[in-house]
Amino acid sequence: MSHRISLTQYLIEQQREHGHIPAQLRLLIEVVARACKGIAISVNKGALGGVLGSAGSENVQGEVQKKLDIIANEVLIEANEWGGALAAMASEEMDSIHVVPNRYPQGEYLLLFDPLDGSSNIDVNVSIGTIFSVLKKSADHPGVSTEDFLQPGHQQAAAGYCVYGPQTTLVLTLGHGVAMFTLDREQGSWVQTAIDVRIPEDTKEFAINMSNRRHWDAPVTRYIDECLAGKDGPRGKDFNMRWIASMVADVHRILCRGGIFMYPWDKREPRKPGKLRLMYEANPMGFIVEQAGGAATNGLERILDLAPTELHQRVSVVLGSKNEVERVTAYHRESRTGT
Ligand code: AHG
Ligand code: MN
Ligand code: MN
User: Fold this and answer.
1) For residue 4, is pLDDT > 90?
2) Do 113 and 60 share a domain, yes or no?
3) 3-state helix/strand/coil string of 73-102
4) Of 17, 159, 233, 251, whose CA is between 20 and 30 Å from 284?
C-alpha cells in the first residue's frame, strides 16, 4: 500500500463519501480505538507496570480475573461513558450492564466488549486482545435495559478487535468489508495497513484445543480425524494445526492466511452450549469473518442469526475459511438427521 491513511481519515471517508456510518458511530469507534491504545500501553509495560498476575477476584462466569482484565475493562468504561454516543455498555467482566450515568448525555448505541481476550496468555507474554461489538438501541422506548442488548448478531452496526502482539493491530468492520490498522507508536496513530481483507475459502490449517478430543461430539471428532489422516485420508491433503488460546490471535491468523477455528460444545459441562460467549466474542468475530468472505456457525446455524436470551450466554463456535466451516456444519447436520 503506497498511500497510507489514518483510522480518523478512514472513518471520515466512510461517513462522508460512502454514507456507511453516522457521525455518532464514527466518534464511538475513535474512542474505542483510543482506549485500545491505552490498554496496549499497559500490556506492553507488563511486569514493569505491575499489571501481571491475578486480581484475586472472579467474574460473573466464575473465572478468576487477572489484573489486566480489570484494567482493560476500566479503560474501556472510562473512555466511552462521557462521549455522548452510548446509552449503555456490557462486558465479560461485569455482571450486568453499565448504563451511562445521568451526568453525561445518552447516545443511541450500545457497546459490548471482551476487554482482555486470552487472559491465560497475559503472564507468559503471548498475544492477547480486545473484542468489541456495537449495536443500536431501539428508539421505541426511553431508558435502557439488558433486553436492549439481546439482538441477533446480524444487527451489529460495527465490530472489531485489537490484537496486542508483535504489532498492535486494530481490525474493524462497519458492515462493508474489513480493514486493518497498525499502531504507529512514534506517531501515536492508527495507520491503515490492509483494506478489504479476504479469507481464502479453502485452507489446510485448523485451530482447536486438541486436549479436549475425548470430550468432543462425533461430528467434530470426524472432521479433525479426517484432517489428521492427511494425504492418505479422505481429505487427500496434509493439515497443519495452531492453537494460541487467545481467540483474537487465532482469528487474526485466519484473517491473514485462512484457516478454521473451533471451540465446540463438549461433554465436560454438557449443559453449557460452549465455552465462548455469544454477545462479545462469537458475534463480533462472526461479523468480521463473514465480512471477510468466511463463515461462522455454531455447528448447525449461522452465529449471526442466533436470538440471544442472556447477556453472558455461551455458544459453540466454528468459524473461518468458508468451505471448511460448511463441511463441519454439514457433518453436524448429517449426524442430527442420520443421513
Ligand atoms: P477470555 O480470556 O476472554 O476468557 O477468553 C479465552 C478464550 C479464548 O480466547 C480462547 O480461544 C479460549 O478461551 C482458550 O480456551 P482453552 O484454554 O480451553 O484452550
Ligand atoms: Mn475472550
Ligand atoms: Mn476476556
Assistant:
1) no
2) yes
3) HHHHHHHHCCCCCEEEEEECCCCCCEECCC
4) 17
